[in-house]
Design brief:
With 229 residues, this protein is α+β, with helices and mostly antiparallel strands. It has a domain of 154 residues: Cyclic Phosphodiesterase, Chain: A (Alpha-Beta Complex), CATH 3.90.1140.10. 22% of the residues lie in helices and 25% in strands. The protein has 6 helices and 9 strands. Strands 1, 4, 5, 6 and 7 form a 5-stranded antiparallel beta sheet that branches. A hairpin with a 3-residue loop joins strand 4 and strand 5. The longest helix is centred in the middle third of the chain and has 13 residues.
Length: 229
């Protein structure tokens, strides 16, 4: 791990990153939200109780990772305390809650329906500097393709607020801050690897900005989900 840098563990970890921008979505097909999916779509204003400090995110949930990472994320990741599940980020921050509309949801549904659902493997532990520890997929290409499509469709939404130049290693954060001892303890997930998972849908969530003082737990909620084709 380089001090202040991004350690991917091995140069091969990012094999295919550039090629990922050529990853092809499946054209044409559209699908609807699954019956009974919890969603705020259809409510007046879509996110009627959004406060002034609320944000949105497009993410790919990884429920298969929860048994291995939930205890660490609950202690070391503020967004987990707020109700955000284990995930890989597609685009954060996304649009302000006031800009989320039914036509926008329809466009997101069309966008992500172009991509085929896929299997993937989380098989490595990596670090960003000495403050963030994460799990990474064996093949970053399909995640980068999803992120690229979202960024291209919504160019006003800079990934991570423009803090990083170029595509960032797709990752599932298991610890952020909290001190080196706690973060090193989070590396105890290694015996649980590899984790086999399925990318089946992209989820739009909304909630108060992590780190906002006085925020009760569990405030983030699903706005809509967009199945991959």
């Amino acid at each position: 791990m380089g001090a202040g840098g991004e350690d991917y563990g091995d140069a091969a970890d990012l094999r295919g990153v550039r090629a990922a921008w050529e990853f092809r979505a499946k054209p044409g097909k559209q699908v609807c939200l699954p019956h009974g999916k919890r969603s705020l779509a259809g409510m007046p204003g879509l996110i009627p109780d959004a406060g002034p400090g609320w944000e949105t995110i497009l993410l790919l949930p990884v429920p298969a990772a929860e048994p291995a990472v939930s205890c660490h994320r609950a202690r070391l990741v503020e967004s987990a305390r707020l109700g955000v599940p284990a995930h890989l980020t597609v685009l954060y921050p996304f649009l302000p809650p006031a800009e989320i509309s039914e036509p926008l949801l329809a466009s997101l549904r069309r966008l992500f329906a172009r991509f085929t659902a896929f299997e993937f493997t989380l098989d490595r532990v990596g670090w960003f500097g000495d403050e963030v520890v994460w799990l990474g997929p064996s093949d970053p290409a399909p995640f980068l393709a999803l992120a690229s499509a979202a960024c291209t469709s919504f160019p006003s939404c800079l990934p991570y607020g423009g803090q990083h130049a170029g595509p960032r290693q797709p990752h599932l954060t298991i610890g952020k801050g909290g001190g080196q001892q706690a973060l090193r303890a989070a590396e105890s997930v290694r015996p649980c690897l590899p984790i086999e998972a399925t990318a089946a849908e992209i989820v739009l969530m909304a909630g108060p900005r992590p780190g906002t003082p006085g925020t009760p737990p569990g405030q983030w909620r699903t706005v809509a989900a967009f199945p991959l084709g």
